[in-house]
Amino acid sequence: MSVKNFETRSLKDPDFSNEIKAIRSYHLSKIKKKEVLSVKYWIEQDRLLKGIGKALTIILPTKGCSWALSKSGGCSMCGYINDAVKYGAKSVCDSEKLVYEFEKTLKNNLDKEFEALKIFTSGSFFDESELSKEAQKKIFETISTYKNVSEVVVESRPEYVTSEKIEETVNILNGKTLEVGIGLETSNDIVRSRCINKGFSFQDFSKVVHEIIDGEARVKAYILIKPPFLSEKEAINDAIKSAIDASKVGAKSISFNPCNVQSGTLVEKLWKNKSYRPPWLWSIIEVLKKSFNKIKSDVDRIICDPVAGGKSRGSHNCGKCDKKVLQAIRKTSLNQDPEMLGAVCDCYEVWKTFLEYEAFSQDPDPSFILSL
Amino acid sequence: MSSQDFYFEAHKLDGLARIGKIYLNRNSFLTPCIAHPSIFENLWRVGDDSENPLKVLIPQNFRSSSPALIKTEKNSDLLYTIPSLNFEGDVVNLLNLVKNLICEKKLFDAQDLAFPVPCNLEPSKISYLLKEAVKLGLRYFILQRVSSLLKNPRKMIDIIVGVIKNICTPDSVLHLSSFIPPYFMRFLSYLGVDIFDDSVAYIAASQKNYLTFSKVLDFKGLKELPCPCTHCENFDLNADFKHSREEIFEFLLAHNLSVYKSEIRSIREDIRGEVFRESVEAITHASPSIKGALRILDRDSNYSSQVEEAIPVRRKSVFLCSSSDSLYRPMVKRWRKRIIERCKPPKHVKIVVILPCSARKPYSFSKSHKFFLRSIKGGARKKIKMVHEIILTSPLGVVPRELELTYPASKYEIPVTGHWDWEEKKTVTEVMGNYLSNFGEDVHFLAHVDGVYAEIVREASDYLSRDVEFTCLNGESPKAEGSLKRLKSAVYEALKDRNNAVSNPNLFHIGRGRMIADFQFGSGVGNILLPPSMRIKVEGNYPRVQRFFINNAQVATLVPEDGLLALTFLGGEKLVEKGFYFVEFDGNKIEGGTLYCVAVSEADKQIRPQDEVFIVNKDRRILAVGKAVLSGKQMVMAKKGPAVRIRRKNKQDET
Q1: N or C: at which end does chain A have fewer Cβ atoms within 10 angstroms?
Q2: Chain B neighbors of A16, CB-CB under 8 A
Q3: B357 shares a domain with B239
Q4: CB distance A229–B64 less than 8 Å?
Q5: What is the mean pLDDT of chain B?
Q6: CA proximity to A286, closest of A298, A294, A274
Q7: Domain assignment present for B109
Q8: Optimal mutation site among A13, A187, A369, A372, interface B, most CBs of chain B within 10 A
């Protein structure tokens, strides 16, 4: 197995890891496992390299993210491992079966129109403990036979990405574009290690980006909007700076992920404890505006699709304007046009004021007073 | 910044609430006060609009900032703030950082640092964090995320009172940084918070909320501006459409800030005017969670005793009992407890006459009580000393005639309509039952009461299985001629066959002195100060100043203003011998008129603020007498601030 050893892995924060691990283990022990292999997929409109188009997303139920299953406890905001454990119990998720399921899903969707294919696991596609080397290869070989697919996206932590693997995959795909999505989350090493527990450094990320680019593939950088322990204002600045930094090292797609509250995570505990509130939609708008302004010419697309948008566990505003603002964000993503970010609501002023005073009160959410 | 430059002193207590003073270099200002957030400087300017405010830097987050970022330059009016915590896992790491800064690197004195307390953590973790911080000498605490407690009264009291106030020393400052609406300020002051952030004024203005002392109003729905402040007077509500968004924001902000400013002044004035508790009872109607929190604080015995320790024994204000919460206020509970535990009736008493209360205080100067007294005296004649009168009243329960001048019996006011609720009746019945159970089988109980009072007496009599003779019959009021006649003859009949063994004409006055001494200093103290075996002289006419002498040496004075005793050094010696009401000074000569906490090595735990106390040296020799500022426990805990205001020094001692 090829797993890179990053030096920064020794820069661990055991108390932080233990806390995350404890919360996760407890939660995982409560989950009722389903001994069925369930492949989720959907087709939706998306911003493709060519412009607006359709993408088929397929989620393969592997054993889940090795980082989340390791002693480290995984990332403070991520609960995707819950799905892996629930739907992909070990006995059913061997690689051959996954390849079979993948091919079946693809065949079933042949009659539908899509030009991009996103294949996600709840972890890293290139992690051979999730998908064997052969399975990875087989999947790409299958895709290469689908003529109308021009764009293939997979996700992986950087330690599983090697030049050889990229080269091999690009060869198999034979002219289709390969994009590797990497969860950078932030370009700030302190925030990534002490607030997220991500386990790799910005330097680790940069190295891998270069390898991918050299292999004639592309990099999509996922940027987390509002990691825990950051104020709303700090989070906005952190996301903008991270996008700039990621584009500088060569990421051509920037995907902003507003943090949402997932089960069995440290973020959930902080949220329940009133120490954390998911970002305001206004913050996302601010991040998008500034990012378009600063790096539009350096990247191919800046996208954002807030998970659980408008809900209390997801990015939200006052409740009245959420739908409207979410729509503006989605439209902007599709059209790559920041002019579409215009939306108004009374709560915009509250958010603006809150940004200035949160540092004093350290209350993440002023809704207590507002609701009175 | 040396440790001498900044400190806090508590000057006047009302339970957990206090007027304090922050000393900063050569300036000082009073608390409770406001901390204005200064967003351009990233610090609070503490001290209302003081020209020389205390500056407190806002905390960084322990995780997202690098702790090494803490600046090391020293500034004489600035407190640095320890990074703030979000979760339990970091408690030990944070404490290590603080220890490192103070003890190893010696970059800061503990006094130069503000310490954030995340109030949304597990109580046990907050408790651990605070205990360690107090051990390290930290005295400035920033209470964070208190807003998360405001909807849960139990949690609010458990954490602020049970943990924070319990652990922090009396000379620690509590600065609340959370978003709270203005009407929580008064209650949180009552819980001992000293400094309030007014950021909510800005947030509310941005939300178009118009704040008042008891509500958050939607500005858009207002037909009139309730407040007559200059901002409101100059704002034309009817021309609202003419104002830009910014103008409305500026107006609302100015008004909202003025609400905080006005409320904080009113809080200080109410503590100073000794009417704070009454004002807190009034504000409980603003929110069920304040009401709930006050109930828990008053009725949960752990908390009520913690509060009672710091409630003064006397106030200059009228004692208003206007709500059902008054029944459980600490001063009232203390009265009932002392009546039962400390006040033992004189041995020579053969009749107890139970009387209703009167609106006029002291009772014996009311019209009704003048009638009662005439009948009782007429019936008892020379045997009057064998009669013990007790007055039945809510919320105090029982007031023995001897204590009618004692605060708050002398100065309480209740709504008198004849409506009693179940809890009131139950409480008064219990107190009376307990008090009467002190009397032997040979004591005759007479009840000169009607209506609800009579019901209460009947219940207490059932509870005690003792007969009570009623003198108000056939629905006649106690003031009716028939009732008064029956009272006179009942007293006569009950005493007819008793031998009058009591001859001292001053006995009633001496008995009053003894009972007040028992009430004020503890059971049995009356007989120690004014021993039955000695010849005691009383000078002065009740209810004016009365002086008590033994062998021509004065031991005590009854001070009519609060119905408590002031003792001479002779009287004090008797108390101190018993280990009562002493404050031990670790020297021999006290300079000035105040004893400071720093010089207190030990003190009687029974001492409450405003108690008469004796300052003694290590050999328990009396050096001075005065009034306590803090409780006995607090003056030992605190390093800063006044412990006792001295009334008189022992001249003998100076030779």
Answers
A1: N
A2: 63, 89-90
A3: no
A4: yes
A5: 92
A6: A294
A7: yes
A8: A369
